[in-house]
Amino acid sequence: MNYKAVWKPLPGSQSLSLSCPCNEILYEGTRGPGKTAAQLARFRRLVGLGYGSFWRGVIFDTEYKNLTDIITQSKRMYRLFNDGARYLASASELRWVWPTGEELLFRFGKEEADYWDFHGQEFPFIGFNELTKQQSPEFYEMMFSCRRSSFRPEDYPLDNGTLIKPIPLETFSTTNPFGIGHTWVKKRFIEPAPRGTIIRETQKVFNPQTEREEDVTLTRVAIHGSFKENPYLDPQYIATLMSIKDPNRRKAWVEGSWDVTSGGRFDHLWNESLHVIKPFSIPESWTVDRSHDWGESKPFANLWWAQSDGTEATLPDGSKFCPPRGSLILIGEWYGCPPNELNKGLNMSSTNVAKGVAWVDKRLVGKDAGEPAETQGKGQIHIMPGICAKVVAGPADSAIYNTADNELSIGQKMEKQGVKWVESNKKPGSRINGASLFADMLEAVIEGKKTESGIPEKPAFYVFDYCRGWISRVPVLVRDDKNPDDVDTSQEDHDWDATRYRVLHIHYKPTGKVTNLRI
Known about the structure:
This protein has 519 residues and is of the alpha/beta class. The protein is 24% helix and 18% strand. It has helices spanning 13-19, 35-44, 68-78, 138-142, 182-190, 235-242, 247-255, 272-275, 350-364, 410-415, 430-449, 468-473, 494-505, and strands at 24-29, 56-61, 86-88, 95-97, 103-108, 125-128, 170-175, 199-207, 212-225, 276-277, 287-293, 301-307, 313-314, 320-321, 328-335, 380-382, 395-396, 422-423, 461-464. The strands form four sheets. The protein has a nine-stranded mixed sheet with strand order 3-4-5-2-6-7-1-9-8. Strands 10, 11, 12, 15, 16 and 19 form a six-stranded mixed sheet that branches. A two-stranded antiparallel sheet has the order 13-14. Strand 4 and strand 5 (103-108) form a beta hairpin. The termini are far apart.
């Protein structure tokens, strides 16, 4: 009997995305290789094979209105099969159902709280449309608890007595590199291994079926697709993409490059080759202090700064470096987040955080102090010992001095460990003002390079090259859609807040008592 194919995947990345055996697949790349069609076909490939109602899937987007296109594409594809599938279009349904029992739902979700609408359900297939729209990995990862199936092949043999294969458990997402979730998606899929390389994570778990501890390996992979693989695209569409003025958006959509800042508040000014510099010893006449943004369930951020007074510094190669008075250099960081995690706090007490801050202060001035047991291996500490002569108190979120029920405040508990702070500027308009001042300092470096001397004329901003956490998070912060002069506060912006406090500190003198901490 001759069969006619009603839909056939394109050679290359689209075909590979359908045959890939991994548990977690990210089909990423440029616009136009057919990612959405591949996602729909990935679910459809197991319809009618004998799994029945056990083969159940859900595809997410962040908002209801964003589901329109994928639903339209599903109608074009699924109706070609003429297999009795019905689309239920009411707002409470939004699903495909097949006569053999399978079903595919379309839903929206982006917050941790959205997970509870699906808690306890079984979805062997979970899809995310444009994964970089997800601002954080929380909802994405929580849905893994629903990626399960109670199907056992021996309980449901086919009519001829043979056993069907176990149901695969898979998460299939599509995306291009541009979006608010760029950073966490890149960290999960792009940074660990080259595209097409399977990432394997093995852990020993108790298997209820065999009642034994066994090694179980989960796999994930990024598959790169390009519009060049799709012969059905109109060249006018490609020309439209090529004419996009935003260089980051064009690089993401046309090249599929992850080396972009996605709609960033500062991406038009950030230049790593100019703003990131090699460390050097801080002149004694410069001010060295620190800033702080508190967090417990979310990360805290401690940043150490050097502020130029206009005198020269000597670089390791013997050359001189003399940024204008008021220029800031980030010389150290302690970010309270577990390694290889995103936006998760250490749940450390303010007392132990203060002990860690005091230890870093001492290390910066070259005192050989043993690291407190409470902070060993906690978070991400990047400093260079013996880099300065003294450390003084800098700005922290004034909220750490809020008290309740006659308890000591966070700030007071820190002071008991010898760690004092200065009140930060949180007056109305300070968020936007801080972002504007920071942008001016970034721009000063760029404009200075255009002059004959190559030296900025106004206060500039630099960061030592070992502060990789800050470099990976702050320059890529995206704008607030409702207030483009600010950053979107739903992002991992803790070290940005600590940065903003310090930038404003140059121009702001609090009315309260300022206490310097000398080491």
